[in-house]
Every structure is written in structure tokens, then in C-alpha cells.
Amino acid sequence: MKKCPKCGTNHDKNGKFCSRSCANSRVFSEETIKKKSESAKRSKKVMLANTNPEKLIKLFKAAKQQNKDGKTVWGGLHTPEVIDKIKKTKKNKTKEWLESLDRKNKVEYRKACQFRFSLNEYPEEFNFALVEEFGWYRAKNRGDNPYGVSRDHMYSIKEGFENDVDPYYISHPANCRLMRQIDNKKKDTTCSITLEVLLKRVLEWDEKYNKNK
């Protein structure tokens, strides 16, 4: 555990501060501010933006295409190799967190059971026609599409928690289906498949896509 130098709260987050508000409340010396300013001015991205903003925009647009030619691009826009390294690091951190998870803690368990995969990885497995017809569900303050589509846990998080099921299975793509949010809400915490069916689906899915737990 670490102690936040701003408010004194004990925490185990990355960095010295316990929250963004505490971090943003730091008071830098004039010398530090000057160094940061000079460093920013010397960055290639800032220099290019000051001299040729149109060229910078083109670079960013090109980088959005996953930089297929393998060339290095400006800060924050990485080559495929760097992207793979970042993904691997995140995956390892997630694995460590799941291994240390307290399954008896309902909040932690629910968080661990959220879907973390991209639907685009498995285009043949999900009914995207439903999305084309109704769009994605959006809450009133986030786009307001109450009749849109959302992801459903076929074997519910509630049942998983009560039966001490490994979150790996609850958050697995094989436990996911697309359905309209109004139907998902009606379904609530009931299950549309049994645990036995879920385990079989996960096994078949992992064999099909060569996934390792």
C-alpha cells in the first residue's frame, strides 16, 4: 500500500496519487514548468503542428490504418509490433488481477465477469444484423437509444457468483449473445443456458479458435 502525498489516503494504484483530482492538484515549481514546456516544444509532433498542421493531420489519418507498412509514426500512434506488445502487457496484468481475485467479493466478481473481448474478432458468431436494424443501446445521457442492442450474459453473473464459477467462463465470448436491451432487461438475472451447456460451449469455442485459458 502507498500513501497519497496530497490527501494521505492509503491506496494500491499505480503512481503516487490516489486519484486524478489529487494528481491534478500538484503544484509544480517554475523550474519544472519551464522544463516541461521546453520539452514539449521540442517534440516532433508539436514542431510539425506549428509548421505544417495539414501534414500532421494526414499522418494521424494514415496511422489509424494500423500503420500496415510498419513505419514508425508520431507519438501515441504505434507500429503493429508495439501495439501487440501493449496488448500482451494488458493481458498479463488482467491475468494477474484475475488470479488474485476475491470471488466472495460481489463487486470484484461482477467486474471480473464483464466482457472484455472485441465482437469484431468473431464476426461469424454474432447477429450483427440486429445491430444494423436497431443500433447499439445508449442510455439517455449517452446517445438515448433505449431500443438498441446490448450484450447479454447467457449464464448470468448472479448465478456465477452464487455457484462460485470462474469468471473466465462468465466473461467468455461463448457466454455472450446480442439482444435488444428491452429484452435483456426483461431477462434480468435469469439464465438462458445451464452451466453444463456453458462449459461445453467454452470448450468447443477454445478448440475452434485455439484459445488457451
Helices, by number, come to 11
Total strand count, please? 4
Helix content: 40-55%
Low-confidence stretches: none
SSE pattern: EEHHHHHHHEHHEHH
Distance between the termini: 30 Å
- Strand order in the largest sheet: 1-2
Average pLDDT metric: 80
Work out the strand percent. 5-15%
User: What is the structural class?
Assistant: mainly alpha
- In this structure, how is the largest beta sheet organized? 2 strands, antiparallel
Description:
The protein is mostly helical and 213 residues long. Among the domains are: 62-100; 103-209, no CATH class. It is built from eleven helices and four strands. The strands form two sheets. It has a two-stranded antiparallel ribbon with strand order 1-2. The chain has a two-stranded antiparallel ribbon with strand order 3-4. The longest helix has 20 residues, at 80-99. The chain starts with a strand and ends with a helix.
Question: TL;DR of this structure?
Answer:
With 213 residues, the protein is mainly alpha-helical.
Keywords, please?
213 residues; mainly alpha; two-stranded antiparallel sheet; 11 helices
